[in-house]
Amino acid sequence: MQHEPMPESAEETGILAREGGASIAYVRQSGKGPGIVFLGGFRSDMTGIKATHLAAVARDRGQAFVRFDYRGHGADAPRFARHTVGDWIEDAIEVLDRLTQGPQILVGSSMGGWIMQHVALARPDRIAGLVGIASASDFTERLIWPNLPEASRTRLATEGRITVPSLYDPAGYVITAKLIEEGRRHLLLPGPIPINCPVRLLHGTKDTDVPWPLTVELAEALASTDVVVALIKDGDHRLSAPAQLARIAAAVAELSGTEEAAWGDRR
Prior knowledge:
By secondary structure, the protein is α/β, with parallel strands linked by helices.
């Protein structure tokens, strides 16, 4: 069941309860459509700079916006190792179904770029467009598994989990055998991927986490003919510098049916 519409300009912070005591935390802004749903990356949360920047721009425009934390992310991070890509796809669909109304633009960052594809396949009639930011399509199979030494693969098989170094967390990231194995059930490349809505894909050429050719491969795999790839010279994986945030906001504005300068010029 969808929530009732909120008063204009209202903001709601809440929790969607999930099975096993887990939860999805969210912040929802009311406003006009098409709405925007931000899908974060692996081990990221809804307080990141891209999510909050787009939320502020949407608020200025009076446009509906939802950001949220998958199970095992944000405040639910202690449960991270319990969950897999399939769980996070289910979470995103749950947010779309319960917290939004009408057409939505999905903005997927890194892993969120993979998840947004699955949401678009599950709910094609609800999706007005997709904006991918350094989309990490099939990342468990394309980026994690090939880079694991044989000793790490052996430990995954025998112990069920390993910890790998991360530039974003001094403690490293826990990778489970379940994450890799379950991820294989959700692979979409090399396609074809029967998504037919407009798609805008942005990627930095200096991204050392997700190589930009993966975004080009995604663009070629999509059924839609309205697909634009923007390679940002010297952009890293985060794409969070002011000019890069402006490019992301402009892509969202284009799919929203407006190209007003406020979207591209906000700092």
